Amino acid sequence: MTGTSPFALSRGSEATASRRARWRPPTTPLARVRACSGRTVGSLLAGVLLLGVLVVSAASPARADTVEQLFASANRAYFAGDLPGAVRGYERLLELGIDDPDVTYNLATAHARRGAYGQAIRYYERTLRLAPGHEDALHNVRIVRDELGRRQLQRRGQASVEARPPLVESLVESVSVGALALAFVVLESLFFLVLLVRRNARGETTRLALAVAAPIVALLAVASGAGYVVKDRAASRSEAIVVTDQTELREGPDARAASRGNIVEGARVTVLGDEGTFARVRAEDGREGWVHRGDVGEI
Question: Rounded CA gap, 117 and 42, in Å?
């Protein structure tokens, strides 16, 4: 990519680049998970998992050094403009089991600067699963989808628009499963506490206030519980992103099978199964069929 790309970064400090660039740059320290700054419970859990990986790695100093060196090397490649080298480095970390939001975010950003928008969307979505509410990933994935839409408009005369997730999923999009579970437990306990206090309260005003508070707390508990169920189900679905310019949706797992149309780059599909080199998927418009497995990347 050239310096005129909307994804180009300043060669200055990370903070300076973040302020000046429309595109938000990669993070640099591997162990600095965003929840450590108090953003989300989900990111904190990701940080704990990463810490566990590094603690276990202490028994093998060579592996720990390799992980840190790989991340640093990938970052250097990124800022030096060696985007293929950066992608290889971040992918190697994933192969080693370092499924961390800093790694997936940086990989997504490297793909975005290469113009591989489907892969970028895939890994930004992965980042948001690992760290719900990740501000930079939310910011960048919107830019990627805008750029991809413009590219599709130039090539085909029309741009695809991703369907919005169901309302409940949208409401809990930036909240982790752990945070919703914790909220449900706390609110449920608070509800029974309110009932107990009201039962023993003597003042009429106090009893009235608690009578008003009880259904409100109960409603919040039900909402957090419903959010947990929706979020948990969404996380358990096997979803993927189309990572090629477009993929042919076929009636069977065979390149000679009849076509059911195309699915364009960046579209989200639900993976229903696989057979050989094909994956059976459901598109957002409800169509089901088979696509080449290499044309989609699981989130």
Answer: 26
Structure tokens at 111: 């793909």
Q: Which CATH number fits domain 14-156: 3.40.640.10, 3.30.365.10, 1.10.3720.10, 1.25.40.10?
A: 1.25.40.10
**Which amino acid, one-letter code, is at 64?**
A
Please answer whether residues 134 and 128 qualify as being in contact, where contact means their C-beta atoms are separated by less than 8 angstroms: yes
pLDDT > 70 in the chain, percent = 71
Question: What's the rounded Cα separation, in Å, for the pair 178 and 184?
Answer: 10
Bridge partners of 297, per DSSP, are: 241
Residues in the chain predicted with pLDDT less than 50, given as ranges, are 1-21, 30-48, 59, 163
Beta-bridge mates of residue 197: none
Q: What DSSP designation does 98 have? A: -
- C-alpha 164/C-alpha 68 separation (Å) is 38
Q: What is the pTM of this model?
A: 0.66
Name the token pair of 2. 């050239």
